């Protein structure tokens, strides 16, 4: 057999990672996950295009103004509550939902989901009312550097956007329910309604209503998304409606996973609130600068991390329900390699080309060259989190599928303390860019801790035989 030429050898070496990727995707589950991720990423890219169009218009209208600082600060609280309660809900309920569906049938799984949705929505309504009642007391702490008029605007915007808490709960949980049935496409495109609503309302009424036009459009678009998901679920034979059938053992199991998941999300979610509050201590425009940089980095979150997490949770849950520990380990190892292969060069590009990227995206109208210099510095430090965020987001789903959310609560506690300490140490030396660097370090530590815990768990499970199949 002839030896390859030097040129062929170099070509083979260059293509080796892609050949390994093809071999890794050969298994049935990996192909299904890859197909789901492709669908979700494609539609998420379309949603991202609409979101980017909205942000370009927002930058042109508001730059790094006080109005945008107020909007971002007001919006972060409803967003935090959605992350805290709703996204914790699907991570806690979907593994048990799939386990019940496998062992007891679709109707029993539907009862479980509808029952869990009752207390999830009740909790969200209570939280929204408490946020409204205590806004005069906590907003001065969250936005300590704001003037009195800027703080008043923040509170008015908060009141207007609090309905997002309940509406987004419907959208998040409806999407999770449909994804559990391996229906990914339409739930992935419907989030386009919120940015389109904000964009259209801003273009039509922005000159007259100012920042309120953005808030009105966002709320209206989210409401339309929630109604569409309810109709879509009904068309696929599932009910996205709260219905109480008693607090049975399976629902107690969900609650047992939900409490540590919410606690962990609360601790981890406070890192963004702490970042906002500390950025508000810095010169005016710092909150907006951090917000613009996050929008760029969130591109990879929207088209990478979120689709991957949504696609892997149902399949990880199915493998765990069947006791397929070797498959869990193989899938985790496969997608770890693929994520690193994809994200490392992208992250390097986002760091090296930070300034031209910010200039192309935002520098027009009220967004000046000075703003570009500030935001690009923040974006370069913030981009370092990307590989660790995407990896950690996938690994967290496997921990949830294993019903070991207590581990995530402990890791979140470590991250919360670390974030506050690093923010304080770095912000006084590097300004708002120091807060961005702190975030990247926190995600690195979180990723190491989650993977270490996960491999220890799977290592103990691998030797166990798979449960006998139900007759």
Task: Characterize the structure shown.
By secondary structure, the chain is mostly helical. Helix content is 85%, strand content 0%. It has helices at 6-24, 28-62, 66-104, 106-142, 148-161, 163-180, 185-189, 193-209, 211-235, 249-280, 286-321, 325-352, 354-362, 369-382, 386-401, 405-430, 432-461. Helix 15 runs parallel beside helix 17 (432-461). The longest helix is centred in the first third of the chain and has 39 residues, at 66-104. Residues 1-26 and 466-471 have low confidence and may be disordered.
By oligomeric state, this entry counts as: single chain
Number of helices in the DSSP assignment: 17
| SSE order | HHHHHHHHHHHHHHHHH
**What general outline do the C-alpha atoms trace?**
globular
What fraction, in percent, of the residue positions are helical? over 70%
Radius of gyration: 23 Å
Mean pLDDT: 81
**Biggest sheet, open or closed, and with what strands and sense?**
none
The span between the termini is: 53 Å
Count of spatially separate domains: 1
Instruction: Point out poorly predicted stretches.
Output: 1-26, 466-471
Structural class label = mainly alpha
DSSP, total strands: 0
- What fraction strand? under 5%
């Amino acid at each position: 057999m002839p030896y390859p030429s030097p040129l062929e050898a170099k070509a083979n070496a260059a293509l080796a990672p892609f050949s390994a990727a093809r071999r890794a995707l050969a298994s049935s589950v990996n192909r299904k996950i890859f197909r789901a991720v492709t669908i979700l990423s494609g539609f998420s890219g379309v949603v991202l295009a609409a979101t980017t169009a909205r942000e370009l218009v927002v930058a042109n209208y508001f730059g790094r103004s006080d109005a945008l600082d107020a909007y971002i600060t007001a919006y972060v609280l409803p967003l935090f509550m959605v992350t805290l309660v709703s996204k914790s809900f699907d991570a806690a309920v979907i593994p048990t939902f799939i386990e019940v569906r496998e062992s007891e049938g679709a109707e029993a799984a539907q009862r479980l989901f509808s029952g869990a949705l009752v207390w999830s929505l009740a909790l969200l309504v209570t939280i929204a009312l408490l946020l409204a009642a205590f806004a005069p007391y906590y907003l001065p702490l969250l936005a300590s550097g704001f003037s009195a008029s800027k703080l008043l605007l923040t509170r008015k915007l908060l009141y207007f956007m609090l309905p997002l808490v309940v509406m987004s709960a419907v959208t998040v949980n409806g999407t999770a329910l449909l994804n559990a049935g391996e229906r990914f496409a339409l739930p992935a495109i419907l989030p386009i309604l919120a940015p389109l609503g904000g964009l259209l309302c801003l273009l039509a009424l922005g000159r007259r209503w100012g920042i309120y036009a953005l808030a009105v459009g966002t709320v209206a678009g989210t409401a339309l998304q929630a109604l569409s998901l309810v109709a879509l679920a009904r068309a696929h034979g599932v009910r996205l409606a709260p219905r109480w059938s008693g607090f049975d053992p399976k629902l107690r199991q969900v609650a047992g996973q939900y409490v540590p998941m919410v606690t962990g999300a609360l601790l981890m979610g406070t890192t963004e609130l702490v970042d906002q509050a500390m950025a508000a201590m810095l010169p005016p425009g710092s909150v907006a600068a951090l917000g613009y940089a996050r929008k760029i980095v969130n591109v990879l979150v929207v088209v990478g991390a979120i689709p991957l997490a949504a696609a892997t949770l149902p399949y990880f849950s199915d493998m765990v329900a069947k006791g397929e520990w070797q498959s869990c380990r193989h899938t985790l190892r496969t997608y770890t390699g693929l994520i690193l292969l994809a994200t490392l060069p992208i992250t390097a590009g986002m760091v090296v080309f930070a300034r031209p990227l910010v200039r192309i995206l935002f520098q027009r109208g009220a967004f000046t060259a000075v703003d570009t210099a500030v935001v690009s510095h923040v974006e370069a430090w913030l981009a370092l989190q990307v590989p660790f965020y995407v990896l950690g987001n996938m690994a967290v789903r496997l921990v949830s599928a294993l019903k070991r959310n207590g581990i995530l609560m402990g890791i979140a506690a470590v991250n919360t303390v670390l974030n506050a300490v690093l923010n304080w140490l770095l912000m006084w030396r590097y300004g708002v860019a120091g807060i961005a660097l702190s975030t990247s370090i926190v995600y690195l530590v979180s990723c190491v801790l989650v993977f270490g815990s996960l491999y220890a768990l799977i290592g103990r499970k691998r030797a166990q035989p798979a449960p006998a199949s139900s007759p």
